[in-house]
Amino acid sequence: MTKLILFLAVQIFLLIAVSSAGDDGEHFARTIDRKLLGLHKKEKLTHFKVYWHDILSGPNPSSIRIQPPVANSTTYFGGITMIDNALTSKVEMNSTLIGQAQGFYAGAAQKELGFFMAMNFAFKTGKYNGSTITILGRNRAMSEVREMPIIGGSGLFRFARGYVEARTKWLNFQNGDATVEYSCYVLHY
Ligand SMILES: *[C@@H]1O[C@H](CO)[C@@H](O)[C@H](O)[C@H]1NC(C)=O
Ligand SMILES: *[C@@H]1O[C@H](CO)[C@@H](O)[C@H](O)[C@H]1NC(C)=O
Ligand SMILES: *[C@@H]1O[C@H](CO)[C@@H](O)[C@H](O)[C@H]1NC(C)=O
Could you give the subunit structure recorded for this chain (predicted)? Predict the structure, then answer.
């Protein structure tokens, strides 16, 4: 009988100890083995070029202004444009569709044409179908080469980091339509 009471007391004590340890909010996170996510392997450096088609004109624009710039701004400062732009394998719009560039760009410079870019490249072809990379950076659109960071990714691009170089290949000054080459350098596992 005494043994049984002792046994039950120990059980109850352990139960309380375990449940209070789980509840104190200190132990919600733990370190795990990198191997569980394949992170013990060497990082790969992947390079690719895609062509980004910013189409503002016509009946089916992929790039739509949702917020006009502030009054009197000649540099689009304060303007916001949402995009769902086609990414293709070659500079021609009718070349193979690789994915979509989804996000927005906003006028972020008062004295020059400078955009804040925030977008995901959502890939649709081959082994990269369903994977994404996220680009967040400063785009001085009139410079020949604009470098922007790749700050992350998903799918095959989990833990991605890197940068892109953007070069305008074609620009229609009348309606603003443009095709920009994105040369992407991505470190990932
Ligand atoms: C815009 O320009 C007009 C005319 O020059 C001026 O009266 C007005 O104050 C300016 N607005 C802003 C927000 O600077
Ligand atoms: C793509 O468009 C160009 C004209 O812009 C045309 O010459 C070419 O034949 C087209 N290619 C395909 C595969 O449709
Ligand atoms: C990409 O994945 C989607 C969803 O899994 C699928 O419907 C589509 O057919 C795939 N496309 C290609 C080109 O493999």
Answer: Homodimer.
Q: How many Å lie between the centroid of ligand 3 and the Cα of residue 118? A: 25
Q: Identify the residues whose C-beta falls under 6 Å from ligand 3.
A: 124-125, 129-130
CA atoms of 80 and 163, how far apart (whole Å) = 23
Structural domain contains residue 115: yes
- Please give the radius of gyration of the chain, using alpha carbons only, rounded to the nearest integer: 25
Report which bound ligand comes closest to the CA of 69. 1
114-142 pLDDT, tens digit per residue, is 999 999 999 999 999 999 999 999 999 99
Helix, strand or coil for residue 7? Answer: helix
User: Can you give the residue range of the structural domain that contains 108?
Assistant: 34-188
pTM for the model: 0.84
In a domain, 19, yes or no: no
Ligand 3, residues 97, 100, 124, 132: which to mutate, most atoms within 8 A of Cβ?
A: 124
